[in-house]
Design goal:
78 residues, alpha+beta, 4-stranded antiparallel sheet, 2 helices
Length: 78
């Protein structure tokens, strides 16, 4: 599962990758720095704690991503 969200503070998008098959759980922030995680749960918790809808061009797009990530925690057979 990958998401690319337009950020208000930079031309580069925020990219969130949750790739269970290859064990990749990472975020590339709009400033091109990144965060890497050992589990999907850690990634999802970080997103919920460190991002807010107001940071993105389309706040609804952010909410759709958070809902999909939350659904993944409930049913990880995406």
């Amino acid at each position: 599962m990958e998401f690319s969200l337009c950020s208000l503070d930079c031309a580069l998008p925020v990219e969130v990758t949750l790739d269970e098959d290859n064990g990749r759980y990472m975020i590339r922030k709009s400033d091109s720095s990144g965060e890497f995680f050992n589990t999907p749960h850690e990634l999802i918790q970080w997103v919920k704690s460190n991002f807010s809808p107001e940071e993105f061009c389309d706040p609804n797009e952010f909410q759709v991503m958070v809902n999909a990530l939350t659904d993944y925690l409930i049913n990880p057979t995406y």
